[in-house]
Model the fold of this input.
Amino acid sequence: MDPRLLVRQEGLRGYFDEFRRKVRGGELGSIPVVVGLIIIWVIFTVKDSKYFSAANAEYISYYMVGLGLLSVGLVFVLLLGEIDLSVGSVSGLAAALFAVLSVNHGINPWVAVLLTLLAGMAIGALQGWIFARIGVPAFVVTLAGFLAWQGVMLWLLGSTGTINLPDTALNHLFSGNSFFLNGDVAGAYLLAGLAVLMMAVSLFGQQRRRKAAGVPYRPTSELLLRTGMLAVAVFLVAWVLNRASGVPNAMVIFLVLLVICDFVLRRTRYGRQIFAVGGNIEASRRAGISVPMVRTTVYAISGTFAALGGLAIAGTTSAAGQAGADPNNLMMAIAAAVIGGTSLFGGRGRVWSALLGILVIESINSGLYMLGLTLDIQYMITGGVLLAAVIVDSLSRRTQKSSGRA
Done:
């Protein structure tokens, strides 16, 4: 019998044996990044006691969203085993397009947001179509996009190179705290309660379906433990943010999109097709999956999230400028996805990797900034963390192959 089916019967020992089996088989999951994140927090807290404060937590939660959204789109692409080098330029172009439409031409900001997202989707779909249908390597297509869309952005911005955004809906959307009772203490706890409720409904719903199907299911005690651990974590975060200004709107949007994308990848036929294509293209074709369709739509998703990330960055800074297409944004977005646990080799990863990865990067950046270290040190440390994540991923794949699980 598969040892995984005995876990629930052996109690606590069964869970320990399952954990040990997964680690030996190279199935590390999010363990390395979580351990690394804890180490980062401990080190910076020892160096500066103000690091573990509500003000710093609020700072991280504000500035992680823009790059985090770029990283979410890249997770979809990396699951195919491909790359999208144009997301940084597309994000800058999206901010410039929104500014031109809303400021220069007076179009309603919400209409401008919709048109901007559609433009990002169209750009991603075009690049995906060239890759999937014509056969041009994704690296070349998106590298050309990286250059071309940056040129379009500079053309839209004009000679000034920057368009300031007035106090519009975009600023409130990504810079305010008005979604939940305008930063009131109850707002953060309401959001935490909704998260716990959704988790409980999902876990117990899955248990009920597995019972009805007659397959092994998690016991109620485990589900209660998981729900309780989540409750402790989210209410602690809510308490910390309430000591500052409450939960930022940008963070609410980011988390909602993560939940939706996670559902799409893990609970829908389309999500399973993405994992299948990333795992084995030929087997996917033989199974009747339209590989060109999957590739094209994944790049459309990446373009949409790049545009949304550009809007978030513009809303946070209240300006659309050349900095929106900073190549470092692309590098950091890719690093976040990989550091969070998404494999560069395709077929393995989750959208929550974007959250964990960008949390690691912003935690490092804020800590180094508080210590007064220069930008070169930040880049060196972030590069080292990225290299460590890729090494762990490679060793994990090698272990899985040797154990017959790859």
